[in-house]
Amino acid sequence: MAIVTGYYCTDRTTAAALTSTGVGFVGTLDERDWLGLATYFYQEPSVARKRAIERSGGAPLQLAIVECDIDLRDCLDFLDPRVAASVRNAEPAFLDYEQKSGIPVLPQARMRVVDGLVSFAQPMPSPYASASAQSPYVNRRDAMFLDWYISDLAKIEGKKKTCIRAAFVGGRALFRESLIFDEVHIQIAVKDLGVVIKPRPYTLEPA
């Protein structure tokens, strides 16, 4: 059984309930969450805190972080190259599903790397500007594809995936030609909260 540590950021009241009862994790409907409908955890506590502050309108004093163990035994894990190859092969079936169901093609943020900079939708205003300041981060198509893939896998093969893990690149490059970025992080999108084990409080030093 593969176990990793994940960090979930919430408010202090919810964190107290989670660490005492294990109940209270909330899923997301945020279209910026690329891995579909799920409860999101980060493998880096500092990233969990930063994302929560961004979405709370900048109120860090009300935030708390919950540390958990997450069982990856039945995870769709994109850190394994074999998983990406298998999922990529499902694209034709997904396109067929879209056409037959009449679902419109959903908008997707256009990501590109230019001169060592991650850019979404539009060029950066300056060589070292933050990608998050520019980006709408809208990735509905990624989310819809993965939701469909997991559902289809369960119906056809009887295989239930409890979570998805993937790495994401963002932020600023070290320099113009660099391919090393300051906001590379790993997300775990949990579909079945039964794989979340031993929630406990976590104290993060002020940013």
Offer a concise description of the structure.
The chain has helices at residues 12-21, 45-56, 81-88, 91-101, 131-134, 140-157, and strands at residues 3-11, 39-42, 63-71, 75-77, 111-114, 117-120, 163-168, 185-190, 196-202.
Structural account:
The protein is an alpha+beta fold. The protein has one domain. The chain has six helices and nine strands. The chain has a four-stranded mixed beta sheet. The chain has a three-stranded antiparallel beta sheet with strand order 1-3-9. The chain has a two-stranded antiparallel sheet with strand order 5-6.
Keywords:
6 helices; 30% helix; 4-stranded mixed beta sheet; 3-stranded antiparallel beta sheet; 207 residues; alpha+beta; globular; single chain
List the helices and strands and how they pair.
Layout: E1 3-11, H1 12-21, E2 39-42, H2 45-56, E3 63-71, E4 75-77, H3 81-88, H4 91-101, E5 111-114, E6 117-120, H5 131-134, H6 140-157, E7 163-168, E8 185-190, E9 196-202
Number of helices: 6
Spatial strand order of the main sheet:
2-8-7-4
The backbone outline, from C-alpha atoms, is globular
Unreliable segments of 5+ consecutive residues: 122-136
Amino-to-carboxy terminus distance: 34 Å
Q: Main β-sheet: number of strands, strand sense, barrel status?
A: 4 strands, mixed
Reading the helices and strands in chain order gives EHEHEEHHEEHHEEE
